[in-house]
Amino acid sequence: MAQKKQVRKVPQGAKPPGKLKVTLGLLILGPPLFFFFLPTWVFLFLSMLPSVVAFVVDRTPYRYAWVSVAGLNLAGVAPYLMKLWFEGHSMSTALKMLSNPFDLIVMIGAAGLGWVLHLSLPPVVGAWLDVTSQRRLTQLRATQRKLLDEWGAEVAQPDSEEAPVSRRR
Amino acid sequence: MAKEPEKKKEAPPPPRKEPVKGAGTPVVLRDRYQIYPATPLFDFDQPSATAFACTDKRDPGRYLLAYVCKPELPPRVNVLRTLKGQQLAGVIPLLDWGIVEWPLAGRQCLVVIYARPLGGRVMPSLDSEIKPLEEHELVKKIMPQLAQSLKELSERGIPHRAIRPTNLFWMDENCEQMVLGDCVTAPPAYDQPVLFESIEVGMCLPAARGSGSYGYDLYALGVSILILKLGRAPLKGVESESLLRGKIAKGSYSYLVGDERMPLSMIELLRGLLCDDPHERWSVNDLELWSNGRRLSPLQPRQEKRAVRGFAFAGEEYNTCRELAFAMSLNWDKAHVPMIDGSLEVWLRRGIDNKELADVATTAIKNARQAPAADVKLAEELLVTRVLMLLDPLAPIRYKGFSALPLGFGPALAVIMGTKSDPKLFAECLLRDVPHIWFETRPEYDPANSQIDNLFKDLKAYMQQTALGYGLERLLYDLNEALPCQSPLVADSFVVEIGELLPALEQTAKRIDPRTMPMDRHIAAFIACRFDFNVERQITALNAGHQERQIIGILSLLGTVQWKLGPESLPGLASWMGAHLGPVVNGFHSRAKRREMEKELPKLVRAGNLPELFSYVENHDERRRDDEGYLLARAEFAASSQEANEIETGTRRRTDQAMRYGHQAAGMIAMMLALTVISILLLIRFL
Question: Domain ends where: B257, B291, B325?
């Protein structure tokens, strides 16, 4: 019978002190910070939409597509983000950059390169794995030939086909 | 039983003035004795050996006689060795013996060389008649000679066991010196007619009489003297069984002498020699004293207790236990009936009036009656055996048709094996402990009996094992200490001592097909029996199920013999052994080790040292290394096979792997690029 899992009872209403501090900190600092960086949040949300799309459309179990897309998307967004931060951190600047087709092409194009990278590397890795496997196979065959030369064909027989060595003594 | 060669029923011809010389191409023994196959000497033939003319190269004027033995009969080798070159008074001089390739038999035969008795045989055959010897001639001339001959033999521990008038010879042309003839070409007493054997020995199979005691020689001498005195054999044409019945019923002296008139001095001699009680029979000393002139009153025979009423069995009535026991032994299948139905017990109690014997017999019968239904037949057979022994304690061991004295088991087995007869009765007798029953039923305790009884127990244990080194072959050599090794591989070399075995095999190696194994049941048993060194491990290896271990066992056994007894080098045998080492070499897994062994073995074979050869092929460290290496190699091969298989069959998995690794790599690269770009932009801004 399964033993009852011993659970440490925490008094009702009591919360860990660290978590409380973080919650309190976020409640106090969160709204001012959100509003203070609102142009950045809006700019990042809109410019990084391809990465969000990549996360959504990737149905593989391990979902690596958004990482590749987001990485290069971020690399494409980074110059404009610097501009936003260092040349006038305002909603108008953010919207201006987001409405500039050239800027958008750079940002979305970078995300597209992320897709290209994501789709092109597996065949390359596959080819590399094939080459190393074939090399390993050649090595194994050579080892087996050497063993056969040294110990004869019986070395290749399964255990059940030959009496154990101890029985011959 | 072998019969004396047929002779004409007439007096022997006068001795030849010029004895027959050999003619034709001789067969040479030891580069000295020339034996002439084309010149048989029929006058000297023995039932188990044929006589041929022989000359000595060193002394061409000397007349010799060569007996060529029957190959199937075991000669008395220990006696041969003792008598060779000896000059015993009253015994035909045995000059030499050996093995020769005998053209008339087309095989090798044992030849015994004697000085030829120039006066010929005293009596050509037992059917013939000769001029009776006079009393004074017998008493003054013959008896001292024969008494001296028996004394000489007894001093050397040799019972002759072939004393009969047809084996007595006149050594000189003037027929002055009578000598005892050959006694070595056949097992002890094998050729003796029942007439010349005491009752108990006469009951035995001819081959199973054993060398026995000097008393048996004296009995045979008594019968021979009687025949010489009469000039003819008494009771001619009487069958062996009737002879024994007569001897039992009347006593040997009365039955053999019958109505013949004997001088008083001869009566004393013959009563002493023909006494049926072995304890009362004259000894060699008594005979010598008589020859020197001592005269006593003749021994009076002690009659066995007779029953007040006879016991009816197989259509006849018997009045003594011994008579009845003998009759029952001849009617074995019917013998158990009066025992089981109780009539024998009643007769012993009331007829013989021997309550002790009746009680012992009753106990045996009760035990037999209690035997389980499945064992009734066996119990009845053993009951008959036991009761016959109780009824006649002097009789030999009797079991169905087999009848032998304890010391006769050896020669009996030798003859059975030599003539390739069926050993079933012999084996059954031992396996059913019949000799032990015989020792149990002895009326008097004899320490020697305990020893022989224990020997029979060991023999039974050996016989129950069928492996090499045991079985009937082991018994053969245990029971016949001087029997040569009967293996066909060394049969020609007459190997008696263990030290002679390897040189004989070395000789065999030169001519035999090397595919033949240098070991068989006889050689294994011979070594196990005669080699004074514990070889149990080697014998066990001989019987291993694996061929490689068997060959190692053979090499080990022969190597041990060479190590202990030499000779130092046996290149022929080593080469022979080497031809069988293939499985041993192949027992190593390592091909490199095999190649090394194939290179090294010829050198060791040329050296001819079997122990070294054995140490080389049975090196435990090398074996262990080979086994360990082989196991590792198998594991390595299996692992590499599995990996190769995975590579060959893992395309889909590899594709999945490539996809995953590719995506991971793409993610990594993208993130690295992003960080790099951000870092550069930040640096540009702040620098």
Answer: B291
* Per-residue confidence (pLDDT) for residue B636, from 0 to 100: 92
Model-wide pTM > 0.90? no
* Residue A62 domain flag: yes
Domain match, B454 and B545 both: no
Radius of gyration of chain A (CA): 31
Determine whether the interchain pair A75/B672 forms a contact, defined as Cβ–Cβ distance below 8 Å: no
Among B458, B475, B492, identify where a domain stops.
Answer: B475
Structural domain including A95 reads: 34-119
Q: Are residues B411 and B511 in the same domain?
A: no
B413 and B434 part of one domain: yes
CATH code of residue B200: 1.10.510.10
- Number of structural domains, chain A? 1
Rounded distance, CA B325 to CA B386, Å? 11
Residue type, position B267, single letter = I
Residue B295 has pLDDT above 80, yes or no: no
Identify the H or E element spanning B619.
none
Q: Is residue A162 part of a domain?
A: no
Cβ distance of A154 and B589 shorter than 8 Å = yes
* B505 lies in the same domain as B535: yes
Asked if B52 and B162 touch (Cβ cutoff 8 Å), the reply is: no
Of A67, A86, A128, the CB nearest to B685: A86
Nearest-Cα distance to chain B for A112, in Å, is 11
Residues of B in contact with A58 (CB under 8 A): none
> Which amino acid is present at B429?
C
Q: What is the 3-state secondary structure (H, E, C) of A67-120?
A: HHHHHHHHHHHHHHHHHHHHCCCCHHHHHHHHHCHHHHHHHHHHHHHHHHHHHH
Q: Which chain B residues have a beta carbon less than 8 Å from that of A60?
A: 663
Spatial neighbors of B96 by CB under 8 A, at least 6 apart, are B29, B30, B32, B33, B84, B85, B112, B113
Q: Which of A67, A136, A139 to mutate to test the interface with B (most CBs of B within 10 A)?
A: A67
Q: Is residue B681 part of a domain?
A: no
Count the Cβ atoms, other than its own, within 10 Å of residue A56: 11
Q: Using a CB-CB distance cutoff of 8 angstroms, which residues of chain B are in contact with residue A155? A: 589, 630, 633-634, 637
Do B183 and B332 lie in one domain? The reply is no
The answer to whether residues B327 and B439 belong to one domain is yes
Model-level ipTM above the cut of 0.95: no
Q: Is residue B350 part of a domain?
A: yes
B99 three-class SS: strand
Nearest 5°: the CA angle B569, B80, B274 is 155
- Min Cα separation B603/chain A (Å): 24
User: Out of A130, A143, A150, whose CB is closest to B640?
Assistant: A143
* Chain A partners within 8 Å of B674 (Cβ): 70-72, 74-75, 78
Residues of chain A with Cβ-Cβ distance to B672 below 8 Å are 71
Interface test with B, best of A55, A73, A120, A121 (most B CBs within 10 A): A121
Sheet of B94-102, strands arranged across:
B27-29, B33-40, B49-56, B59-69, B107-115, B94-102
Q: What DSSP character marks residue B121?
A: E
Determine the structural domain holding residue B245 and report its residue range: 27-291
Give phi and psi for B55, each to the nearest 5. -130, 160
Tens digit of pLDDT for each residue in B350-409? Answer: 888 889 999 999 999 988 888 787 788 888 999 999 999 999 999 999 999 899 999 999
| CA of B425 vs chain A CAs: smallest distance (Å) | 40
Q: Does residue B80 sit in the same domain as residue B221?
A: yes
Do B247 and B344 belong together in one domain?
Answer: no
Residue B44 lies in a domain: yes
Render pLDDT for A126-164 as a digit per residue (tens, 0 to 9): 999 889 999 999 999 999 999 999 988 888 887 654 444
